[in-house]
Amino acid sequence: MAAELTAHELIAKHRPTLDQALEAIRTRAYWSPHPEHPKAYGENGSLDAAAGKAAFDALLGGRLDLGQPGTDDWVGGEVSPYGIELGVEYPHADIDVLLAAMKSGQRAWRDAGAEMRAVVCLEILKRISDRTHEFAHAVMHTSGQAFMMAFQAGGPHAQDRGLEAVAYAYVEQVRTPDTAEWTKPQGKRDPLAMNKRFTPVPRGIALVIGCNTFPTWNGYPGLFASLATGNAVLVKPHPRAVLPLALTVQVARQVLAEAGFDPNLVALAAERPGEGIAKTLATRPEIRIIDYTGSTVFGDWLEANARQAQVYTEKAGVNTVIVHSTDNYKGMLSNLAFSLSLYSGQMCTTPQNLLIPRDGIRTEEGPRTFDEVVSDLARSVDGLLGDDARANALLGAIVNPGVKARLEAAAGLGEVALASREIANPEFPDAVVRTPVIVKLDGAKPDDEAAYMSECFGPVSFAVAVDSAADAVELLRRTVREKGAMTVGAYTTDEEVEQAVQEVCLEEAAQLSLNLTGGVYVNQTAAFSDFHGSGGNPAANSALCDGAFVANRFRVVEVRREA
Amino acid sequence: MAAELTAHELIAKHRPTLDQALEAIRTRAYWSPHPEHPKAYGENGSLDAAAGKAAFDALLGGRLDLGQPGTDDWVGGEVSPYGIELGVEYPHADIDVLLAAMKSGQRAWRDAGAEMRAVVCLEILKRISDRTHEFAHAVMHTSGQAFMMAFQAGGPHAQDRGLEAVAYAYVEQVRTPDTAEWTKPQGKRDPLAMNKRFTPVPRGIALVIGCNTFPTWNGYPGLFASLATGNAVLVKPHPRAVLPLALTVQVARQVLAEAGFDPNLVALAAERPGEGIAKTLATRPEIRIIDYTGSTVFGDWLEANARQAQVYTEKAGVNTVIVHSTDNYKGMLSNLAFSLSLYSGQMCTTPQNLLIPRDGIRTEEGPRTFDEVVSDLARSVDGLLGDDARANALLGAIVNPGVKARLEAAAGLGEVALASREIANPEFPDAVVRTPVIVKLDGAKPDDEAAYMSECFGPVSFAVAVDSAADAVELLRRTVREKGAMTVGAYTTDEEVEQAVQEVCLEEAAQLSLNLTGGVYVNQTAAFSDFHGSGGNPAANSALCDGAFVANRFRVVEVRREA
User: Where is each Aldehyde dehydrogenase domain found (chains A, B) (predicted)?
Assistant: First the structure.
């Protein structure tokens, strides 16, 4: 059967975008081909808001048949953090049958070469982009993100991260030429002459283990990096966030088939409640690459046990913001308030520990005591979330009972500077919506250390009193070294303090945002420009996205012969 | 104190070479700045043969004081495979003191940037190159390589591999710009604008664990890749092959100091007999990168236990040559004979298993039976090594008693097609020089499988009778998959067989040489063009050299602030 999508068509359609992505990762200037505004969709085949919502609604209570081999059962049971039961059923696989089937298409996918694989990946991303409104609802009702965030972070931003991974994967594979002629002079004798052919070859089958909070954003980099480097990809979603990745797999299988490849190069591994198949899959000999986002405990387990695979993990960290001095006090407070509130602090990048000198800070409005800074920040959060509609749009819903329990327990850890409030969601009355809590702790008290030196994932932050800027810097160093950090923030107008914070971040490999007072937040990174994590501290063993993230997903085989 | 070597001078001197190396790894055409011919040395500050020999002789029986902190003793005791005692003493380190000292210079080395680090590395390589004659004797009298091989493989070829690693390290670090201006449109509102700074930061201290047979060739890639990416490097040589790496460390320390950096960025960890410090060092928290060449047992131990480090291993494999058919029978035989004889088969790339159909092979001179092929090959080896002077120049000496014992035991494994002979070395009467043994085995006999499916490092090869070309291809696949391979060779004039062998090599990630009959041998790879190992089968987890070999030796830290 002739492919419906030819290489020629795909390359003509997507090569310009690939080239722009390659240029973007080189300059790291702003770029994205995926519109952020919901109203940008609805033309050229993309679904508008109403069509996207209708498409999502049509999925509910149905069976998502991906046509996968070895399907031995149907599983489901997702309940939205907004309270509705999705009722979607997914294929449950006989793993022996599915893994065997995933191998059959690998040779053709390998032989297609780096450029063809890249443009097939770009076609998959384009189809996903066209359905961004539909995916937004799927992300919203699995992660608990508010609609606008689910739309942007789960849509264009996730697609950007996927495309970025494709760009890195492509450039890494074409660093070595397809062929070389090698001629070595031998003095008066004839030169030695060899013809060499170099082929990027995949590792095997890659496993993507998805997370609850950012199924697409955290899932796409590994998925597309592995696929673009010639591997087959098995997607094991979080049991509470299957739908966005199941739809992704569906699109990928469709595009692969249309381009003449085996759709089983991408497959879904949904599981029964409590089945815990990630451990089983992760140690199968066929699985040679694993991408994981989630708890430190399981990430460490994967690194220690899935020894047959290249393992890329993003685990937990303790993110710190040092508040030392500022020349824009209001800007600092509102920027921080937004960071603490966005998606109820359920981002791996949300600040947890705010280190503030117990003697207070300098501002352009004069000095502020520790207590004043904390209460001003509490007031700023209150102001930001004072209107219920805006609070709902910013906070989203608490993703699972574990986060809610931690939030409730946090009030017992110290003096509560800002209490968490319930917010009613008129559209989804069962949604659990809570404002963040801020708890005061003392950096010098050993009892408090247990709290601020542990990750407390969710809308909980600690205002930690420290003795001095130097004390803050040392606590930052210790926190990053021992617990890891996805982000570090600092506010200071003092050149020496800034240098000291920078030096800690360079030495402990943490990504630093300095003096943010406007519309960019410490917990947000932009694909093609910002690195997400560093891969150099305990929070993650890899960064999104760099050469190291893609270079070991394939190997280069050389075949040489005399010329 | 002002540096004697300024950045300006070093860049002016070495940037053109770096640029040529960058171009060479891109095209993979022949290139080397390091002359292979001994007579090319003696001008422009390089030592000629006599001066190099004199410099080596002056080292014997002396103390190599590297000026390292924490030196608590002096250790030595190398005995050349050629029989002479080197009598050189090296510093033994108090590891706590030495590791602490190695950290002090890291910040300045990091801040110097990728280009400065690269040219400092090139200056180190240049000084080593100038002393190639001296190094050649040091390599000869530790590895047992014959002089010419020690000269070339231990000199220019090792320097090439070091330079190649520097080139990869440099290009990997400058893929991300130093700074970026990021401006994101916000419709009618002001755009978001950020200034970003990106800094490559080292992992920490890198450990190079050297091997007995190729101290410089296998040591330089890891050493220079780590140093060029900003790490300090601790070199732990094999106790029988300290001198070449101790001289390397000495040169590196001298150049670093002259360029204004802390010489302790490179240090030596020599050990007492039986001290076994590699295990202790490998699990120290300060050690964040390990490069190792040696046994599978210890390589696997490192991968499993040195979890705080990035571990790059080259271990053992079982290298196969399939002999199916040829249109240049004599060329094939002489090429194979050379490969089996060079350095007494003590290369990780030497063929071990020659798979030959039991029904014989086709040649341009007509069919040859299995027995004829084996006896013709034996005759070819005999002819190559018939003259004692040539035999000594090719074979070198047996590196250690373990290899000799294996060689002697091999004759008991099957029918001996070519017996090993002792060769007298008139210059070094105590040298143990032996010609290779070829033993016939039957691929269908389970008893024989234990022999040919294990690595028998040294001048031992097995002529394994197989049922068919397909049988050979399947045995090749199984051998690479289960035991790993640094090299694969094949002789065939049959397009289908060639395709089948290629497909196995692509699927199992093995480097393939086809139909070599001239002056290029399966066990030799050329830097800047050939990959050494693939990193995709059990023989090695990395290849020399590619992006994956360097990309994870550093991380990139971003500092961003509002524009």
Answer: 92-534
